[in-house]
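Table 4 source record.
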Amino acid sequence: MKDINLLKYSLLKLSEKNGLDLINGSADYNQDWGGELEARTEQMFGDLAHFIGALNKDDQVDQLAALLRLRARLLDLSNFFSDLYEDVNYLIECDSINWPEIPDSYSY
């Protein structure tokens, strides 16, 4: 997996370059994003493995319990990325950065 901390450092660099403060943004910039993402993903895959085991045992109570845990883990991952999205969106839309217009002829 690529290091998502590169995103953190890049966002902080852009914000500092433009006199902005992301420390109070949606994402936690004091956190190791790579470690956090890895831990949350491992938890989700652990719950997925439990669900698959419950499917193989045909145990509906265990299936439901696993699905409830899996849903919570997926929401947790979604919130992690939602916080990143919010800070990226803030940098795009903030008035402190005088972004140029992207010409129609621009090719990414």
